Amino acid sequence: MASTHDMAARGAEVLVASNRGPVSYEVREDGSLHAKRGGGGLVSGLSAIGPDAGALWVCAALSDGDREAVARGVGEEGVRMLPIPADVHADAYNGIANSVLWFIHHLLYQTPLEPVFDAEFRRQWASYEAYNGAFAEALAEEAAEGAAVLVQDYHLCLVPGMLRELRPDLRIGHFSHTPWAPVDYFGILPGDIREQLLQGMLGADRLGFLTRRWANAFTACCTEFAGELGKTQIGVHGLGADADFLRERSHRLDVDERMADLRAQIGEGRRTIVRVDRTELSKNIVRGLLAYRQLLDDHPEWRERVVHVAFAYPSRQDLAVYRDYMTEVRRVTEEINAAYGTPGWTPVLLNLEDDFARSLGAYRLADVALVNPIRDGMNLVAKEVPVVSDEGCALVLSREAGAYWELGEDAIVVNPYDVLETARALHEGLTMKPEERAERTKRLSAAATALPPAKWFLDQLTALRELQPT
Ligand code: F6P
Questions:
Q1: Rounded to the nearest whole angstrom, what is the distance from the C-alpha of residue 171 to the centroid of ligand 1?
Q2: Is residue 294 within 6 Å of ligand 1 at its C-beta?
Q3: Helix axis angle, 191-202 relative to 159-166, nearest 10°?
C-alpha cells in the first residue's frame, strides 16, 4: 500500500470502507498497544493489487483499544480508523445494523412481537446516519480525483448516496456480503427508512451481490419501493475459497496437533459430522443438533459409532439474543449427551472457543460437513471443507445458503427448517461410498475455488473503473 505521506499528497486511488478493518488493537496491562491482524476475503483481495496501488482502507474503531490507538496516533500504513464515539457506534452497529438490517435480510424476526419501530429505533437510526456520515466524510477527504471506492455491507448502506453528494467525481461501488430480503419482508421496515436505504445504495455506480438470487431480491425491492434502479449497475461476484492459502495453512504442524487431539476425543474408528460456525442466529445450530438427535433415534446403529463435532464460536455477544442462543446451543448439546452418551462415547463434542487451526483439523477429518443455515449470503465453510478434506467429505447443505447455487449439484441439499429431512441427509452422508464421496469432493472443491478472493476483488475494481462516467 502507498505510504500515508504519498496519499496525503495525492489522495488514495482505491479505497475500501468497512465496519471491521484489517487490524484491531488491545491495550496490554503495561499500557502498551498490541496490534492483531485479521484475515478474510477483503484482506487477500486488497493485497492482490500490490503495495503501490495507492490503496486506503477506512474502517471504524471498534474497541477501546482501537480508540486508544487512534488517540495515540498509532496506526498501520494504508489504514484509517475512524474514532466514532462508542455510544454512536453501539447504536449503529448493535442497534440498527445487527438487530434490524441483519434480521431483515436473514428473515430472523419472531414477528408476533418484533420488530417494534418506536422512538428508541428512531434515536438509533440517527446514530446509523451519523456513523455512515463519518465514513462518507473520511472517504471524501482521502480519495484522489476519480478514485474507486468499494463500500462493504449493510453497515454502510447510506454511504454511497452521501459520498456521491460530497464527491460526484468518484467511482463508487457497494458490495453486500449478506442475502437481500424478499420484497414482503423488506416491507416490514418503515416507509421512509426503506426509501433511505435503497436511495443510499443507489448512490453507487455499481452494486455487487454474492448470488443472482440476492441481486434479484434487491432489484425487486427497488421496483416496489423506489420506482427504478437509475444508472446503477448490478453485478454478481460469488466469493470463493482461497485454495492456496487453505492447503498450505491446513498442513502446518499446529493443525496436525489439533487433529491428533480431536481424534483422541472422538475415539477410535468413529465417523464424524462436523460443523464450524460463528454462534450466529442464522446458522441454525440448534436444528442441526435436533437433526443429529433424530439420526440417533432413526438409526440406533450409529450410536457409539458417530460423533457430532460442533464448533460454535462466540459472535456479537453484546446482544442478549445472541447470548441466549449460545445458551440454547449448550443446553440442547447437554441434553443429547445426557440422554444418549455412554461411559466411552460423548455424542456431541461442542467447542465454543475460536481456534482456526482446530477448525482446519476438523475440516480435514470430517466424514460429513453440516452447513444448514436458515439463510446465508454465501457460507465459506461449505466451500473450505472440500478444499482441505483429506479423504473426501459429504456436504449436507441448506438450499438457503448462497453457496447452494454453486455447490448444490454435488451436495446433499436440505430445507434448513426440516429436521427429519436433515437427519436423513446426515445418514445419506455417512453411508455414501468412499469413491463417490471423493469424486463429489473433487468437484465441490473445483466449484468452491472458481473465484478466489484476489480475483473476486479485482473483478469488481475493474468493472467499476470501466464504467463510463455519469
Ligand atoms: O456476512 C456479513 C458480515 O459482515 C461478514 O462480512 C463478516 O464476516 C460477518 O458478517 C461478521 O460480522 P461481525 O463483524 O459483526 O463479527
A1: 24
A2: no
A3: 60
pTM, whole model, 2 decimals? Answer: 0.96
Determine the Cα–Cα distance for residues 94 and 118; give it in Å rounded to an integer.
Answer: 16
How many angstroms separate the CA atoms of 79 and 56, rounded? 6
Average of per-residue pLDDT across 328-353: 97
Question: Which sign, positive or negative, has the C-alpha torsion 262, 265, 268, 274?
Answer: negative
- Work out the number of other CB atoms within 10 angstroms of the CB of residue 112: 5
* Rounded Cα gap, residues 262 and 112, in angstroms: 43
Residue carrying C-alpha cell 451519523: 130
Task: Convert the pLDDT of each residue in 266-309 to its tens digit.
Answer: 999 999 999 999 999 999 999 999 999 999 999 999 999 999 99
Tell me what the mean pLDDT of segment 441-468 comes to. Answer: 95
Say whether pLDDT at 4 is over 90: no
Number of H helices, E strands in the chain: 20, 15
Q: 30 Cβ partners below 8 Å, 6+ apart?
A: none
CA distance 225 to 221: 6
User: Predicted confidence band at 2 (pLDDT cuts at 50, 70, 90)?
Assistant: very low
Of all residues in the chain, the percent with pLDDT exceeding 90 is: 92
Beta carbons of 398 and 373 less than 8 angstroms apart: yes
Please tell me the distance between residue 318's alpha carbon and the centre of ligand 1 in angstroms.
14
Are the CB atoms for 258 and 361 separated by under 8 Å?
yes
Cα three-residue angle 100-284-456, rounded to 5 degrees? 70
Question: Which residue is associated with the grid cell 448462497?
Answer: 402
pLDDT tens-digit map of 218-267:
999 999 998 878 899 999 999 999 999 999 999 999 999 999 999 999 99
Is 177's C-beta closer than 6 angstroms to any atom of ligand 1? yes
Strands 412-414 and 23-27: unpaired
Say which residues have a Cβ less than 8 Å from residue 312's Cβ, sequence separation at least 6: 275, 277, 278, 279, 283, 285, 326, 329, 350, 351, 352
Prior bond to 115 cis, omega within 30? Answer: yes
Is the distance from the beta carbon of residue 233 to the nearest atom of ligand 1 less than 6 Å? no
